[in-house]
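User: Okay, second chain of the day. Same drill as before: sequence in, structure tokens out.
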Amino acid sequence: MQLTGESLSSLKLRLVSWNEAANPTRTRVTAVAAYRDGVACGHADGTIWLYDIVIPAAKDITDSDTDDSFDLYPKCLLSAHQSPITLIKLAELSSPSPEGHEDTLISVSDDGDVIVWSAVDGRCISRVWTPLPNIRPVSMCLQTVDYQSAAEDLLFITGEGSAAYILSYPSLAVVYEWQLPHAEWITAHAVRKRKDHFRSELLICTADGVVRIWSYDEFALAQQDVFSRAASPAQQHRIDTIAQSIDKADSSILESIADSEAELHSSQFNLESQLAALGPDQVISELVINPFNDDEFLAVSPAIVRLFASRNNELHELLRWRPQRATNSSFAGAGFLGKADILFWDTDGTIFSVCTQFSIEGGSAGIHMARGSHSDSASTYAVATGLYSVSPGAPDSALSRLAGQQNTQTNVLVSYSSSSTAHVLSVVLPVPLSSVSGSANRPHENPEDAKSGRRNWLGQTMPFDLNKMWDRWLQDVKLETPVTSALVLCEDRIAIGRGNGAVQIVSRAQLIRDRDAKVNVLDGHNSAVTALYEWNPAATQKNKHHSDTTHMAADQNTHSLLLSASKDLTLRFWDTSSGECLYVLPTQSAPVVHMACMMESSRQVLWKDSAKHQAVNKLLSSLVLAVASDNSTTLVSVSSFERVHVTAPYHALPACLSLCRDSGDLALRYTDGTKRHIPLSHLRGAASDQTVPDESERYPEVSVNLLQSKQTSRHDSSWLKASVLSQKTPALVLDVDIERLQATFSRTLTDQMTQEQMKQLVQSHPALQAAVAVLSQLCLWGVSEELDKIKRDFGMGIPQPMSLSMSNKQMAVHTLLFPNTSNVNSSWCMSSLLNSQRMLGVLMLARSILQGNEKKAVQMINFYVGKLPGQIGRQFKPLSLLTLAQYWQSTNVNLQRAARTLMLSAVHGVSEKQRRAELFYWTSMSVDGEDLQALTIVCVVAGDFPALLPLTGRSMVATLLQTQLEAEGVGAQLAAMELLSRGFSTFRAYLDCQAVVQRLVEIMVSITEEAGEASGGVSYAAVGQAKAALQRISAADADVVGAGLERMLREGSLEEQRRALQAVGVVVQKQAGQLQGRVEGLAEAIVGALEPKRATARRRLIGAAGVALQGLVRAFSWVSFDAEAQLLAVGGASGRCVVYDVRTATRTAVFDGGGAAPVVAVAIAPAGDFVASFTLAGQLSVWNPQPNALAMFTKALLWSDMQAAAHGSVTPLKTMTIPRGFLGHAGK
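Assistant: Same drill. Structure tokens below.
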């Protein structure tokens, strides 16, 4: 699954094939953290594993002392950091869930890289743009900015040095980089908000044992440009204090305010106090602020734990603990459980609980301490520990069931202990010592006594043996030799390099579904394969830019060659058709990790026909550059199987290989800017020419980016790409482009095929077989027998358990999810984002694959859209509306249709509480109007459930939509037109309806032939969207569109009148019903726009007016026009008939039959001698449209008085009533 911060242009899924190399116990754990459903472990290789605590629903953990009452299961692997994880911190983030927030994890690696992850599904939320320089992080803390503003929270990170970095959370933008004015390294820090101060304080401990307290204004720090927008509370307090004594005539007071403001601008941090040094042998490794009393804090040193209080800029030591411990142990951390309860622990697995104000069985108040052990193995030692205050969250979460309480913070102690044979992850829910009373729960003096039961004064203790857990998990996974390299070849094949040195060549269908099928194995390497490259000369013949490229491989076979590199320091050349090893070439002192050729770049340029240019072109296409792990390079000739040039190891990465346009040699550029020259004159058979040739003789620009071309497929048209996740996690990754895959089906399969014909075609088509295998992996099996039969009938099969898994990627970040093998439905219970994209893939592929049997396709789609969440149960993760909204305006029609179907289904398929939470969250996210996805979600939900959106929200959304409608971006216009028209009934009261209609009309008629060519069809899409929007608005309120057009004709400028006339002509052709209630007014406005006194305007409008009038005559039977007499007759709902002279733009007659029935038909006799009108009551009247001169003069006087004209009726010449029965027989 692919994640991105921008709108997704295509739908891509990622499948991952696992092996025994995924076992995390092989790497050292360096940091741990707890969240509401489990534990996170950071490793020395930069990966982070999330483990969920699984509790059987039928068991009550609070009454069970057995180990099988709970279990630990791997949920996902987070791969992004390139160095060991040093810090992990639990935080919260607002989310569109009923709880309103979700747990997040902030991870910091040794190189200063910072990432925020979701603890729910492991997705990457944000990442610092560049790692923090010159810092090895040792301490991290998060401060919430309390003020009601748009400011984000503050994240403080310090390390081994004298620099502190302040980042905004969760965006991770660097707010402030502070170089402390001392040379001592920082060992720990903490922040606190003093209740009696307006400024916060930063406590910093250094290697010399000194504690310094710095004050700062967190509001000013969070708002980087706060001084130009608003004053912080501290600033406002100082200003108000001075302002109370201001004399308007006294300018000195005003100057003092300016001076105080300049002082605030000068520095963000002020040194309040420097406390007494504790001594270098008592360096503080951790500071913990007492959340119940901000004056107190714990200072943890390796040999001693102290409780301090800082009052009046002085440091007071209240208590100290130096209990007896094992020789090799040291204190690892501490924390507060309550106002008088303290917990601290050491690396030997011993926990010390302290109550500073407590009386046991009537004894005197004082300090009481007890100890216990959370590890059952004496041979293990704690390598990572931490105490976290976690919100239990939902009632069914693991933490809620373990703690037996809800809606309260729970303290969780996590410890990872390791030895050569054991790896134990312990989770402890400690109970404050002050809550223990009675002899039954008296604190144990002997640590062994504390192990007598699971629930004692320590609380709930859960040790998990990771070795047993992974042994059990790996039994359900089909083990394979680790994949170390992979490459998509031509002819629908994939080359896979294994850890045992073998190279396998398999088809895509075999790789995805039939893993036991016989494959072509190339044996030769005796160590892991590190790189693969395909050299295919036949591909160059397809290039239209150079006709002479076919001569390049005249002395070669036309089939491709496969180059494989290994840790055995050899490079082998393979014939892919026969599997024969053609040559073995020794490499440098390090294994090759990447290979690249200039063949692809050479094909993209136009070479001259001269022999000199063609010789260089041929030479470049036969050279492959092999880059080793020590950054040394070897230039290899495929035609002669020899090394052409070798460069020595270098500290920087090779970045680019380019052709020198003057000499014809190559230049190798590194990431640090260094260049190395690679001569090729001896290969061309010509001496090196130092003269600068003319421009006509210079070679074209040819280069290859060595950083971007690593482990990527050169077959860009393929819907499948293969690669290796990383050297740390040797797993095979298959990127599937669902849109390209669906297009393959659409071109191959037709609706006229029978199911049997389609099945036979799929069996004979390798690409279609692989596509069916992909759909088999995406679908759910074992829930509906009828659905499984539909899939089997078409050749789909049940995928092998745990052979494939889903993944997502954002900013070079991979999140690999592990479905629970014991539950076939678990893959739908892990990630909302994964479910959204997976179901999109199912809908697109199912419609294409099963199009020969529409009934089965509809059954399959309806199951996944409507019934699947109910089949899975409440554990099913609701589809991510944000992901679906990103495809709401997709240019791919099939993807857009699938996204809209799923989004509407998701909105209606969740509870009202979930809908309200989604609406509240995305409304707050769309405040600035720039987030179109958030605006899309709000409009879709509010359009179907308007009662959930408050009036203030409706007003805000309506304003944003109207603003987006006026925007210049085509994407914003398309989204605003659709969303506004879909939710018109909800937002109408807050919209300027006339302005909306005018803007839609402007878009609809603004397209020209030149605009269409310039925009590549985007303008035509906007025209279609505007037409559809007008139609939806008219369906919601039939009078809005007609009233808007009429207003434009009466009051608009000449250009607006022209657009309105064109819009009338367009609308009456396909959506005439939109104007039905405004025909009288529109006809009068059209005639009035042709006023002869406005000769220029009449000439410009006459053509469009003629089209509009002709459209009205064709669409409505109560409008008639006589071309000879230039008379227009229009019937009305009031029963009258009005006659206009188009030549003079005047009203010549108004006929009123005296009845209230509306006129439904009119007709004008040739030459305009008579006008006939027919009403709904059956009254037929014949009128004389040419009154006497006095009557014409009277009508002209009454032209400007509409009310008077309505009563200036003329008596009909003939009136008759036609019976209803006759009308029925008369027909046409």
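The radius of gyration is 39 Å.

User: Thanks, on to the next one.
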